Amino acid sequence: DWSSDVCSSDLVFEAGRYEITSISVPSDSVVWFERGAYMEVYADGKGDYYGALRSAGTQNIRIAGRGLFDFSAVQGGDSKVKGVFSFSRVTNAEFSGVVSINSNNWS
């Protein structure tokens, strides 16, 4: 259970509905999604390709829990390029238990 590794400086999403465009994960952090955390993903209106959950050039990140990312609101139209999860040049990363639905590209 990674929830015991979460400290006050990390990001915790409790059960509930969240409207997001993108969450950037910095180095040396944990992002924890409690069961029932429902992430409703939207485009920012600028045709952004940022992943809904992303990190670049970072190290030592953990993403875990039982969160659900729903991409229904970015299907087709100008939002068709909305990224799902985007990680580049990341070292020592762990990703577990997060689910995406209705994405229009691979996840």
Structure, described:
With 107 residues, the protein is mainly beta. 0% of the residues lie in helices and 48% in strands. The protein contains no helices and eleven strands. The strands form three sheets. The chain has a four-stranded parallel β-sheet, with no helix packed on it. A four-stranded parallel β-sheet has the order 2-5-8-11, with no helix packed on it. Strands 3-6-9 form a three-stranded parallel β-sheet, with no helix packed on it. The model has no long low-confidence stretch (mean pLDDT 83).
Please give a handful of descriptors for the protein shown.
single chain, 107 residues, mainly beta, globular
Please specify the SSE layout and strand pairing:
Blueprint: E1 11-13, E2 16-20, E3 23-24, E4 29-33, E5 37-41, E6 51-56, E7 59-65, E8 68-70, E9 83-88, E10 91-96, E11 99-101
Parallel strand pairs: 1-4, 2-5, 3-6, 4-7, 5-8, 6-9, 7-10, 8-11
Strand content: over 45%
- The number of strands is 11
Tell me the radius of gyration: 13 Å
Q: What strand line-up does the widest sheet have?
A: 1-4-7-10
Structural class: mainly beta
Unreliable spans: none
* SSE sequence, one letter per element: EEEEEEEEEEE
Distance between the termini: 24 Å
Shape call: globular
Number of H/I helices: 0
> In this structure, how is the largest beta sheet organized?
4 strands, parallel
